[in-house]
Amino acid sequence: MKSIEILNMIQIGSTGRNSGKTTIAKRIIAENRHRFTIYGLKIITISGVRGKCQRGEIGCGICTSIDEGYELIEETKCSGTKDTMELLKAGCKKVYLLKVFHDHLLEGFLSFLQFVPRDTVIVCESNSIREVVKPGLFLMMDNQKAIKKTAANVIGHADFILETSKSLDTFYLIKTKSGVRFSENSVEGRREKV
After folding, report:
1. Half-sphere exposure of 25 (CA within 13 A, CB side)
2. pLDDT tens digits along 7-51
3. Which tens digit of pLDDT belongs to each residue from 25-37?
4. What values do phi and psi take at 189, rounded to 5?
5. Rounded to whole angstroms, what are the CA distances from 83 to 8, 106, 170?
6. Among the listed residues 138, 189, 181, 129, the one whose alpha carbon sits nearest the alpha carbon of residue 11
7. Distance of alpha carbon 68 from alpha carbon 143, whole angstroms
8. Alpha-carbon distance 31 to 28, whole Å?
9. 163 contacts 142 by C-beta, under 8 angstroms
10. CA distance 124 to 54
């Protein structure tokens, strides 16, 4: 698969569901929203049989609501509890949900980028996007007993592997020509399990 580099993007992945991705994303956004314009992106990558829940359940309808390509939806409400609403409440200027079939990941992501101003910091929740995008910073949440396949495919690329959403004291960011990174006062420059 073809890949691109987006240095102003922070990717947050996870080894399993309900691991703290949105909690970490909200902290990063809240600590930096007055310093940078931040856009949020939540990606749901659909694999397996089209039109069926990939978890083998009745499901929430997200995976079955599209049957090809991708769908990009801007979140406009911040009064609910969906992850995209939480990112908007935390201080993102805009937040999008990208529902995408795996074979359309890059195409769907490029569509999202058309709406993002040049110097904007992107906070993205996804595992699979790392297969086609190299972010400036990649955090992996590893607080599950098992590792899902999408995480296993990309965990080796993570800059930081966090066992809990409380692992770091600060998420103060520095934006340079070479991308976004944590400041010296957090954990910048160390690739390790925290």
Report:
1. 33
2. 999 999 999 887 889 999 999 999 999 999 999 999 999 986 655
3. 999 999 999 999 9
4. 90, 0
5. 21, 22, 21
6. 138
7. 32
8. 5
9. yes
10. 21
How far is Cα 154 from Cα 182, in angstroms, rounded to an integer?
A: 21
DSSP type of residue 146: S
Could you tell me which residues come within 8 angstroms of residue 122 by beta carbon, excluding any fewer than 6 positions away?
6, 8, 9, 10, 38, 39, 40, 41, 116
Neighbours of 137 (CB within 10 A): 22
DSSP letter at 177? T
Write down the pTM of the prediction.
0.86
Please choose, from the candidates 115, 129, 166, 91, the residue with its C-alpha nearest in 3D space to the C-alpha of residue 9: 129
> 3 CB contacts (<8 Å, ≥6 apart)?
106, 131, 132, 133, 134
Q: How far is CA 165 from CA 122, 134, 138, in A?
A: 19, 22, 14
Q: Give kind and range of the element (H or E) at residue 4.
A: strand 4-14
CA distance 5 to 130: 10
Residues 152, 39 contacting (CB under 8 angstroms)? no
Sequence-distant (6+) residues with CB within 8 A of 64 are 51, 52, 53
Token code pair at residue 185: 């006062």
